[in-house]
Design goal:
This protein is an alpha+beta fold and about 675 residues long. The chain is about 50% helix and about 20% strand. The protein has 6 domains: about 150 residues, PAS domain (Beta-Lactamase), CATH 3.30.450.20; about 110 residues, PAS domain (Beta-Lactamase), CATH 3.30.450.20; about 35 residues; about 100 residues, 2-Layer Sandwich (Beta-Lactamase), CATH 3.30.450; about 90 residues; about 140 residues, Histidine kinase-like ATPase, C-terminal domain (Heat Shock Protein 90), CATH 3.30.565.10.
Length: about 675
């Protein structure tokens, strides 16, 4: 019966509190809607008023004064500013030029434009639309506080030569409106909140709190932990519990927070709860006599249960002690002064002390002074930071200097207060010795690698010499064959038959092709070994120079180049990359009706890419893997001249710059070669 009475009483209290809370929440949400609309309307009206004035003939009067020095125009401008000041209801009116300087204003206008005003003036000039500043001036500087509404003088040109500024005093309308509450209340109010990076600022008091504040009302809503526009229980900027709601202000980055102290919001609910509780108590008293015997019996049962709990705790402590004493790691605990409260068997053995000698002692009694100081510093770090730390430490033990891997953390009482430090230490002396031995072997291995690298470099040098020798020995006979064949063609062509002349022409063409292939083989070999010199390269200048050199050979081709970046690259090798890519594009698009080559940048799968695109014959995507293989051609030599080495050289040069190249094509329509320069390689990132 007592349980039923308590349950009914609790249910009635909860239901009552829910009803009162819903009522207050609805009032606060309605007030938030009203105030948010009023603030948005106030800002919108001021923006419209200033925008209208910015489109007025005041702009022309300003130009007469500033451009022609017309003093009468200056007087008219001041009169109009004064009239507009009276009509606007602002604190003051002034004019700021496109350099951010105050050039005119009403009698009470300030002569210096603060940074927020200069920023708003620049935004208004750039966008040709009215702007407004955030609330500022809480630092004590006059005037304080203010909101500036700015509109460009549209008749002064585009961009505007100056802006019209109305300085609004929030104490006139904004703050009084926010403080008003339709019902009597000593804590209810509305405030404006703005997010600035990872902080929230209450504009009325300029209180600044982190967005990560766990219980802050505005922070919870902006993080998405609480619904926007719905009343929730949280803390306000004063740190007080409140029932409040947050709504955005249309057209701004402001938020309106309407709140009421929880004590006031739930006052009626608690009073009603007291009456319900009193009724419940009467019901309990009415059943108390009959429940006395039952309660006594329950008390006896509770005593038995508590005794069982104590026995469980004792067994758990005994189990923990058995685990600690059986551990091969040293387990210990100290109080805030550094005195040992606990030390297991392994820890005492490592110290060469008995448990009685360790308990109650500090590190200064167990270790040399320098080691004791280091241990005390790590204890202080764990307690101050309130987190677990791990580190290696060398300590003097009875068997000599030993290395321990130690983990320490703050020791807390039931209230959560830090009362000391606990720790676990593992002897890793042998592991450290093995690690040092491995380091010595690694250094020896590095020396062996250096020796092998030097031997490899000598081999590469020998290969270079061999390649040059072979090139000379091959190209000499080829030049002899080609030269005598051309001489025979010029002197004896008339004496030869058509078949003989055809065979002679094939000999000359074959010698020329062989010579070009030998040169391409050498170029392909040098692409991997040529020394690179990185420095800033303006690709706009490099491409412009190459286009002037290559364009005359293809007068019908249209070449366009968009803005290109400045990169860290080898200028000679980068010139070879673009020469090959642009030359290929001109060659394979030359037979189109309107040959077109485009050079620019785009966003690709690996970031910003530089591309060369043409509308030539293209290639089959199934054969794209052959593009960058030396001497692999996707078109007949009769249709397009070449040996198939150029793209292989381009790929190697791009990879030496830390980048990647890819190709895609739609046959007969478009072919694109796009590459990146590796951002992770020093001197090779796109600037």
């Amino acid at each position: 019966m007592m349980s039923v009475v308590v349950a009914l009483t609790a249910w009635a209290i909860v239901e009552s509190q829910d009803q009162f809370r819903d009522r207050e929440a609805a009032r606060i949400e309605a007030m938030a809607d009203l105030r948010a609309g009023q603030v948005a309307t106030w800002l919108r009206e001021n923006l419209g008023r200033v925008e209208f004035a910015g489109r007025s003939p005041m702009g022309e009067t300003y130009l007469l004064w500033r451009n022609e020095g017309d003093t009468a125009a200056h007087e008219r401008l001041l009169d109009r500013l004064s009239s507009f000041h009276k009509a606007s209801g602002g604190h003051s009116v002034l004019i700021v030029d496109d350099q951010g300087l105050v050039v005119a204003g009403t009698a009470n206008a300030e002569q210096q434009a603060p940074p927020l005003l200069r920023d708003a003036a620049r935004r208004a000039i750039d966008s040709n639309k009215p702007q407004f500043t955030n609330l500022y001036g809480h630092d004590g500087a006059l005037p304080a506080p203010r909101i500036d509404v700015v509109a460009p003088f549209t008749l002064t040109g585009k961009p505007a030569r100056a802006v019209l500024v109305v300085r609004l005093d929030p104490q006139v309308f904004l703050f009084p409106t926010l403080r008003e509450w339709p019902l009597p209340s000593h804590s209810a109010a509305s405030v404006l909140v703005r997010r600035e990076g990872d902080f929230l600022i209450e504009l009325g008091s300029m209180t600044r709190l982190p967005l990560s504040s766990p219980d802050l009302l505005a922070a919870r809503v902006l993080r998405g932990d609480a619904p926007l526009g719905r009343a929730v229980d949280a803390l306000d900027f004063r740190g007080r519990p409140v029932l409040g709601v947050v709504r955005p202000i249309a057209g701004t980055d402001w938020f309106l927070m309407a709140r009421m102290d929880s004590g006031e919001a739930y006052a009626d609910a608690w009073r009603n709860a007291l009456w319900i509780a009193a009724a419940g108590m009467l019901a309990l008293l009415a059943t108390g006599a009959g429940a006395y015997w039952f309660r006594e019996r329950q008390a006896l049962q509770f005593a038995h249960i508590e005794r069982a709990h104590q026995e469980d705790k004792l067994r758990a402590l005994q189990l923990l002690d058995a685990i600690a004493q059986g551990s091969t790691d040293s387990i210990f605990a100290k109080d805030r002064t550094g005195r040992y409260l606990l030390c297991n068997k392994a820890g005492c053995e490592a110290l060469g002390k008995t448990m009685e000698e360790v308990i109650g002692s500090d590190d200064l009694a167990l270790f040399p002074p320098a080691e004791a100081a280091r241990l005390a510093a790590s204890d202080a770090q764990a307690m101050t930071q309130g987190r677990t730390i791990s580190y290696e430490v060398e300590l003097t033990t009875p068997r000599g200097l030993a290395t321990f891997l130690t983990t320490k953390g703050p020791l807390r009482n039931t209230a959560g207060e830090v009362t000391g430090v606990f720790g676990i230490s593992r002897d890793i002396t042998e592991r450290s010795r093995i690690s040092a031995e491995l380091d010595r072997h690694r250094h020896h291995l590095e020396e062996l690698v250096k020796e092998r690298t030097a031997a490899l470099e000598r081999t590469v040098s020998d290969l270079d010499a061999f390649s040059a020798s072979v090139s000379h020995d091959l190209r000499g006979p080829l030049h002899t064959i080609g030269g005598f064949a051309e001489l025979l063609e010029r002197s004896e062509a008339s004496a030869l038959s058509d078949g003989g002349r055809h065979k002679l022409a094939r000999i000359i063409a074959g010698a020329t092709t062989m010579d070009r292939m030998i040169k391409d083989i050498l170029a392909c070999s040098r692409a991997d070994r040529v020394e690179m010199s990185f420095r800033p390269v303006d690709l706009n200048e490099l491409v412009d120079k190459l286009v002037r050199e290559l364009a005359p050979a293809c007068p019908n081709s249209h070449i366009s180049a968009g803005p290109l970046p400045v990169v860290q690259a080898d200028p000679t090798l980068m010139g070879q990359v673009f020469s090959n890519l642009i030359g290929n594009a001109l060659k394979f698009s030359a037979k189109q009706g309107a040959p077109r080559v485009e050079i620019g940048t785009q966003e690709g799968p690996d970031g910003t890419e530089i591309f060369v695109r043409d509308n030539g014959v293209g290639f089959d995507a199934a054969e794209s893997d052959k593009l960058f293989t030396p001497f692999q051609r996707l078109h007949r030599a009769e249709d397009f001249a070449g040996t198939g080495v150029g793209l292989s050289i381009v790929k190697r040069l791009i990879e030496r710059h830390g980048g990647r190249i890819r190709a895609e094509s739609t046959p007969g329509e478009r072919t694109t070669f796009a590459f990146t320069l590796g951002a992770g390689r020093a001197g090779a990132s796109i600037g």
